[in-house]
Specification:
Layout lengths: L23 E9 L2 E9 L6 H15 L7 H6 L8 H16 L9 H6 L12 H8 L7 E4 L2 E4 L9 H18 L5 E5 L2 E5 L8 E6 L12 E7 L2 E7 L4 E4 L2 E4 L14 E8 L2 H14 L1 H9 L5 E7 L5 E5 L1 H4 L5
Antiparallel strand pairs: 1-2, 2-5, 3-4, 5-6, 6-9, 7-8, 9-12, 10-11, 12-13, 13-14
Amino acid sequence: MKIRLFLLFISIFVFSGCQKPVAKYIYNKGIIHGAPYLIVYENPEGKDMQAEIDTLLKNYNMIFSVYEKESVISKVNNNEDVTLASEFIACFNKAMEISQISDGAFDITCGPMVNAWGFGPEDKKKMTQEKVDSLKILTGYHKVKIENGKVIKENLNMKLDMNALCDGYFCDLICEFLQQKGCKNFMTEIGGEVKAQGKNEKGNIWTIGINKPVDENVFVNNEIQAKVHLENKALATSGNYRNFYVEDGKKYAHTIDPKTGYPVQHSLLSATVITQDGMTADGFATTFMVMGLEKSIELSKQMPELEVYFIYADEKGNNKIYMSENFKQRLVE
C-alpha cells in the first residue's frame, strides 16, 4: 500500500569510548523485509545492541510479513489456527481507527487488490472491470473484526495487509526497546519512516530530510525538498512516484483506492505526516495518498495533532507545496 522513501539524516557520528564503559553514539544498519534501516543511539553503557535489535525486527517481521508463509498474518490470511500476538492486535486496532476516521480510504483488507495489480507477493493479474468487482467483494474494513483472540472474516477469502503501518510501528517498538535500555537520545529509521528522541551527537535536535518526488522507479534519488527538526516525534512519508509501472502507455502507481479498486489518479505526489507515534504517522501518510490533496487538507485540519506536508502537481505539472501551520515551525532554513 505504500512506498518506502529514503530520507537524509544529518549529523550522525560515532566517537570512541574510554577504557571503562561510557555513553557513546552507536549506529546500526541493516535490512528488514527488503527495506533498509538505520538506528542511532547513545548507549549509557557504550554497548552495541545490533544483535538484539536484529532479533526483535525478525520477530516483528514474523508477525506482519505477508511474504513469510509462517508469519501470523499469513496464517490469518490462510485461515489457519494461530495465536494473535499483542503487536498484531495493536496494529489491527489502529488500522480500524484510521479506517473509520478516513471513511474507508485506509483499509487493511485491500491486500487482494494490491496483489492483483502487481504490488504484492503474488503475480500480477489481468485486470478487467469484472476482476476489480470480484475483488471489491473481498474488501471492506467493516467485514473483519477480532473476537475472542481470533480474526473473524465475513468472507474466508479475505486477506489482510498491514504493510502501511508496519515500518512506523517497528520504529515505535525499537524506540521502546532503546528506552528500556536507558537510552535517552536516539533516532530510528525503518524503510523511510522515522522516530527520534533527544539530541544527536553534536547536541542538536535531529534533522530529517524529505525527498523531492522524481519519477524514477528506483531508490536512487537523494535530492532534498525540505529539512525538518524532529524532536520526540515520528515522521512518515508516502508517495507514488517510484513504485509504479507503465502498461499500454498508462502509468499505474502502487497506492490502491479500496473503494474503486483501481490505483489512485490525482495530483498528490507525496504526503509527509509528523505526530506522536510512528504507526499513526505511517497510516495517515498512506491514507492521504489515497484521498488526494483536497480531501487530505480537509481531514488534516480536523486533526491538529497531525502535522502535514504535501507535495502536489499543479495544472502545468509544476510541483507545489501545502503544509499545516504547525509543520512550518519545524522547517530548517
